[in-house]
Design goal:
The protein is α+β, with helices and mostly antiparallel strands. It is built from four helices and eight strands, in the order ααααββββββββ.
Length: 237
């Protein structure tokens, strides 16, 4: 009986000790948790480092608009306006270059197209090949120059509009074959409202030989119109 009482008292003492240990551990954990929370609050309440002021030069758009001061908003607006101006200037310059390239190279009104068109006619004509020599491809170039290395020789040309609104274009350039040289003269015109140029004349002059006419509208006889009488008046078909 006494042994049982001693055993029961020992178990109670052990349980009491265990409970005290658990209570101490919980109390320690609660203290540590409160300390961590206080530390985090103290860290969060620390003042942040001041950001760099936004200017026209250093603004990268990283700061929201509502966080900017009045002076910084003015700086960002100025920067964006300058960027837009640069973009618009680039677009205008690109468009101008494209227009100039079209007018000078691809348009039917350009000097380059008129020159290439005449050179093709010269090279394909059998009389020209006989006069200049057909040993190699006929070469066309602009005005003679003293510089042997100059490739971009100027081509003499003139464009004007007469009082009737008809556009005229005149040009002359040099050609060279395997045996002789010659000078090409051309005159094209375009009636008002038309888009295609017509030849008035296209000639080749080779020293010591008669002029070769590839086009000559002045030598073409005018078309004869038949006339008839009707109601006492002359009418032309």
């Amino acid at each position: 009986m006494d042994a049982k009482l001693l055993l029961s008292a020992g178990q109670r003492s052990s349980a009491l000790q265990t409970g005290l240990v658990v209570l101490c551990l919980r109390r320690y954990a609660a203290i540590q948790s409160s300390r961590c929370y206080a530390t985090q609050n103290n860290l969060g309440s620390l003042p942040r480092a001041p950001r760099k002021q936004i200017t026209v030069v250093n603004d990268d758009g990283g700061v929201e608009w509502k966080a900017l001061s009045i002076k910084e908003k003015a700086a960002r607006t100025t920067q964006q306006t300058l960027n837009l101006g640069v973009i618009l200037t680039g677009l205008v310059m690109t468009g101008g270059c494209a227009y100039f390239l079209y007018k000078e190279v691809f348009s039917m009104d350009s000097k380059t197209v008129q020159f290439n068109r005449a050179v093709d006619r010269i090279r394909s004509d059998s009389r020209v090949k006989e006069a200049l020599g057909s040993g190699h491809k006929i070469r066309a170039f602009g005005e003679p120059t003293w510089n042997r290395w100059a490739r971009a020789r100027p081509i003499a040309s003139q464009a004007y509009k007469d009082p009737n609104g008809t556009e005229h274009f005149l040009m002359h350039f040099n050609v060279e074959g395997s045996s002789r040289r010659g000078v090409v003269n051309l005159h094209t015109f375009k009636w008002p409202g038309q888009s295609d140029w017509q030849y008035k004349y296209l000639t080749l002059d080779v020293k010591g030989q008669p002029r070769i006419y590839l086009e000559n509208t002045d030598a073409t006889p005018p078309k004869q119109h038949s006339r008839f009488n009707f109601l006492g008046m002359q009418w032309r078909k």
